[in-house]
Amino acid sequence: MIESAPPIKRALILSGGGGRGAYQVGVWRRLQEIGWQPDMVCGTSIGSINGALIGSGWDAGQLEAFWTSLDRKRAFRVSLWRRIKYRINRLLGRHPDFPALLDNEPLRQTLSEAIDVGRLRDDQPTVTVAATNVCRARLEYFSGEQLSVDHLVASCSIPVVFPWCEIDGELYWDGGVMANTPIFPALDAGATEILVVLLAPLAGDPVAPPKTTGAAFSWAFDMITIGSAGSLLQELASHLGRDIRAGRESLASQHFMDLGDIRIGVVAPKTAWGMDSILDLDPQRISARIAAGYDDATEQLTGFLQQSMA
Fold it and tell me: Which residues lie across from 43 on neighbouring strands?
């Protein structure tokens, strides 16, 4: 007899944000302390990596050790040969892939060594990752037996910065291009307790206008990520087919929203870290983001966890 997969009650949603992903480690530490164990983990970009490690059975200590040992040599490298090869092929009249700024092969190797793919593909918890199909301009989700390290690398392949990944004849970029907060697989699976971990503020306080070109680019990027987080309610309303504007105040002030049959909690940084943080793996700043995730989860999830544990 074929055993059916266990029902999905609790889902952990991990947004994308590169080096900011260390924040999610601190949140995971807090969740383990209070015994909140997800039945499903959905991730985009760096959230897909953290989700895969959690799905592989890693505790907060293992996840923190991974992050604090993760330097640029283990994540990416500048590929001069890729750019030279591109120029040569263009001169010869060929049509090669465009030259990405960085090579993500080191990340692929690091993940291949760290992740137990067999454990990742089981359903305790179910792991789902998002990637953007480049040529079809659509978001795709991968889980179960189809999930591989290649899908994790694809989910993290920031356009132009990293090369796209080819999987089964299709080309994929970062899932955050089309869904930086992949909550819909959890809703479709019937999850009733959904915890979203953002890597940008849920709502930003007024700030001074940027004064340099670099500061303008950085703030524009943060506005995009903040806007993505801010659109969560509209996306939920559309998906659920109901008016949930009344939950906006609760979500902003108490970091959770009770929809009766579904409860949604949110942990989010209190400040924006800037565009430089995307590729920032400085050990001190990584540790600071882990600590911030733990402190924010402790503070922001009081109401959600009281409801969840009731």
Answer: 14, 129
